[in-house]
Amino acid sequence: MSGFAFSDDNGNCIWDEGEAKIEGVSFTITPGETRFASGVDGTYSQRLAAGNYSILMDSHEYWEMVCQVNVSVTGTNNNYNQNLPLRKKQNGYDLQVTSGVTAWRRGFANESVVQASNTGTSDAINAKIEVTYPDGVDLKSASIPWDEVIGNTYIWYIDTFKTGESLTIYLQDSVTTDVSINDELTLSSNIIADGTDVKMSNNTYAQTVVIVGAIDPNDILVTPKGKGSQGFIDGNQLLRYHIRFQNVGTYKASRVVLENKLSQFLDIATFRIESVSHPGFSYVINQDGLLTVKFNQIELPDSTTNEVASHGFFIYTIVPKKTAKGGSRIENNVFITFDYEDPLLSNTVVNTIRYTGKPEVSDMIIFPNPAVSDISVIADNITSDKAPVIRSLRILSTDGRVIREISNSEELLIQVQVSDLAPGLYSVLGSDEGGTIYQGKFIKL
Ligand SMILES: [Ca+2]
Ligand SMILES: [Ca+2]
């Protein structure tokens, strides 16, 4: 089944000459819940087994689908044409820009991508895209040559940025050896046009990239990383997941599949695709929260033949569920499959939702007790997968004076010298990054 999405200006549910074709609108085919987005010139193409289907539009700020689209598919290898009529909810253009960097590796050439789109319902006139590189990363070439360069800022002018249109600029950049591994550098993008953009908040985009050396090219990154080894974040924090893949085989890959189980603590309704290296993918999120992204006909070259073009990425954002409690641990990893090879499992990234309100109080274990020369302190509620690290610790005398203080400890088990303390009873108070308070007592002989 194939066709295109279009702006049904006269509301007759069919395409008439002059009605604009709309790119970048997402739809769901039900049953099966396969999701796809309209591509260049609004086109789409999906393979379906025999059966009766409805095509529904995913919720969109500026477009809606008023006409029913039902399709009955019979037999095998039949072709169906079905265009998708859209109705404007609001008039005006909404330009937006995002960028994606596969990886900035010190001393290497890399491919970055800037994607601009007009998701609004009218054309934008005299648009201008600006991309600013940080010192230490040089832009070498671009798939669409820039019109002007001022310092580190590269500028593209577009006379008419049509409604529904999107534009991808592939940038070949090179990280000089003037920068160091672990430096954080920012690629900034901006888009403007004549008149009024109905939403200005998405017209600028800043992507901060950590400079790496040799990397495992198939991985997942989360932004923000959160605090500490458990990645503490607020419960309403937007998380950006950046899946990177590279064909390190010996021949081009025709097909790449990403399988990414979304944590039970993430709200699937807030899932948004932000930037994708290759167009023409489809994705589905099933009832168990498994996100499957398929790049069919991607023709991804292998790294030996063409290192720069052998990379790809998929970036999305999502917000934790409002019901996720403090301490909920959000893990994420991805299986990446090239053609019919065995899936590769990426690293696992972790965020933990910070506790709010009244802190929880827990016990700590102190030994030996009574003590002579030193004590060892460990949280009482240690389980195999969730061991709280007591980050700060205070030893108090019976009259409440602080005798010893330790902060920013990274150790699961903290050792404290007590040989110089006067004999008597002491209390110990600690806290972890989640805000849990730990308490205990010991006797110094
Ligand atoms: Ca029409
Ligand atoms: Ca905008």
CATH topology heading of the largest domain: Immunoglobulin-like
Class inferred from helices and paired strands: mainly beta
| CA-CA gap between termini | 82 Å
| CATH architectural label of the largest domain | Sandwich
Describe, in plain words, how this protein is organized in 3D.
A hairpin with a 3-residue loop joins strand 2 (26-30) and strand 3 (34-37). The chain has strands spanning 2-7, 26-30, 34-37, 43-45, 51-57, 63-64, 70-73, 84-88, 95-101, 109-118, 124-132, 137-142, 148-150, 153-161, 166-175, 184-192, 204-210, 219-223, 232-233, 239-246, 256-261, 266-276, 281-285, 290-295, 311-320, 329-332, 334-338, 344-345, 349-353, 361-367, 374-379, 392-397, 402-406, 414-417, 424-431, 437-444. By secondary structure, it is mainly beta. Helices cover 0% and strands 49% of the residues. It contains no helices and 36 strands. The chain has four domains: 2-88, Immunoglobulins (Immunoglobulin-like), CATH 2.60.40.10; 92-215, ntegrin, alpha v. Chain A, domain 3 (Immunoglobulin-like, Sandwich); 219-356, Sandwich (Immunoglobulin-like), CATH 2.60.40.740; 361-444, Macroglobulin (MG2) domain (Immunoglobulin-like, Sandwich). The termini are far apart. A seven-stranded mixed beta sheet has the order 33-32-35-36-30-31-34, with no helix packed on it. 33% of the residues are buried. The protein binds calcium ion (CA) (2 copies). One calcium ion binds next to strand 9.
